[in-house]
Amino acid sequence: MGDDALSAGAVARRLGVAVTTLRTWHRRYGLGPSRHVPGQHRRYTAQDLDRLEVMLRLTSQGVAPAEAAAWARRSTSSAGFASSSAGSASSPAGLAPLLAGSAPLLTGSAPSPAPSPASPAPSPAGPGGGGQAIPLGPAVPAARGFARAAMRLDAPVMRTILERAVGDWGVVRAWDDVAVPVLVGIGERYQATQRFVEVEHLISRCISEVLGAVPRPRAASPARVLLAAADEEQHTLPLEALAAALAQAGVPTRMLGGRVPPPALDDAITRTGPAAVVLWSQIGETGDAAQLARVREHPHPPLLVAAGGPGWRPRLPAGVAQLTTLAEAVELVCAAVR
Ligand code: B12
């Protein structure tokens, strides 16, 4: 690369990661800039950039950072593995499928290269890892990669992981296996520490963006499905997942979003005559079941009135369907509108 060596800012922009992420990868995993010009900041060479691209690709696929870094170092340190200036690493046999983008996101059978003796051990509990990680339990690698990127506040990587999961598996599985474990985990993290609100918000934002980008069906007729959160209810992500999953099933929806007062819901039903209404309550404070009864008693009641979320109390009124999973919700709504 010679004089074309890049600054940290330029590399960050090119890869779509934060400069702080580059610093972390440098400090913890030795993936730093190698070109040194006296009196200047170190610069990233083409080979440094190749390593970082491998690191980014693998961590996006859920490979643990220390493992990914070991691969990244190996990918350019041995003869024959070095890449051209085109910027993409030519890969050793075992790495090729991962770099080709077909990494086993679900099964987690990522390779476990022996880190070179020179590689620093990952920091056990530094900011963004170890003791401050989002607790996940058994989770697919994509969920772990998403959670790690979230703790680094690395939105581009978060979006990439989720987009790939949606593309590879569809909305229902991406939501159930990647988004939900991370949402539950960050909820627990917050409860235990009263911290990481910023992480929670970024997670919500990225999930919303990816779900919102799922192409909507070009409907010949207006949407016959109305989605709304209960009065004062701000939790809307499960409804956003439902809208995106229904879109993939070819069913258009009308999404009112959060905090819908009962009179406004009445008006929307009067004006749009939906065949199905799904109302979401996440927390007890918003889950007065009288809201559901009111929809049932509308002069033109929808064929399906369904309640989603754990907030509803004291119990669902007669004639209201209880939705317990996203897949079930998709099935029931599809049946009501077809
Ligand atoms: C993201 C989030 C927010 C975001 C919401 C952003 C958005 N656009 O939706 C924001 C920041 C707005 C927020 C606000 C608040 N939040 Co909040 N939030 C969450 C978080 C992390 C995820 C919520 C979510 O989407 N859950 C959906 C899935 C992941 O969870 P679930 O409903 O339990 O899923 C089960 C079923 O519903 C089903 N399921 C899953 N997906 C789907 C989809 C469909 C269609 C169906 C039918 C079923 C289904 O499967 C699961 C297993 O049973 C949760 C943590 C959590 N565990 O949920 C806290 C959480 C719900 N929030 C909580 C609280 C306390 C609040 C606030 C009161 C905080 C405050 N002090 O202001 C406010 C409430 C404001 C209000 N009036 O609504 C508490 C609720 C505690 C309680 N039970 O009352 C939680 C549990 C966090 C915690 N551990 O303390 N929150």
Which helices and strands appear, and what pairs or packs with what?
Layout: H1 8-15, H2 19-29, H3 46-60, H4 65-77, H5 96-99, H6 141-151, H7 155-169, H8 171-193, H9 197-212, E1 225-229, H10 237-248, E2 254-257, H11 262-272, E3 276-280, H12 290-296, E4 304-308, E5 321-323, H13 326-337
Parallel strand pairs: 1-2, 1-3, 3-4, 4-5
Helix pairs in contact: 3-4, 6-7, 6-8, 7-8, 7-9, 8-9, 9-10, 10-13
Bound molecules: cobalamin.
The site of cobalamin (B12) has 30 residues, from helix 8, helix 9, helix 10 and helix 13.
Descriptive notes:
With 338 residues, this protein is an alpha/beta fold. It has 3 domains: 1-89, Orthogonal Bundle (Multidrug-efflux Transporter Regulator, Chain: A, Domain 2), CATH 1.10.1660.10; 137-214, Orthogonal Bundle (Methyltransferase, Methionine Synthase (B12-binding Domains), Chain A, domain 1); 225-337, Cobalamin-binding domain (Rossmann fold, 3-Layer(aba) Sandwich). It is 47% helix and 7% strand. It has helices spanning 8-15, 19-29, 46-60, 65-77, 96-99, 141-151, 155-169, 171-193, 197-212, 237-248, 262-272, 290-296, 326-337; strands at 225-229, 254-257, 276-280, 304-308, 321-323. The protein has a 5-stranded parallel beta sheet, with helices on both faces. α6 packs antiparallel against α7 (155-169), α9 (197-212) packs parallel to α10 (237-248) and α10 packs across α13 (326-337). The chain binds cobalamin. Cobalamin (B12) binds next to α8, α9, α10 and α13.
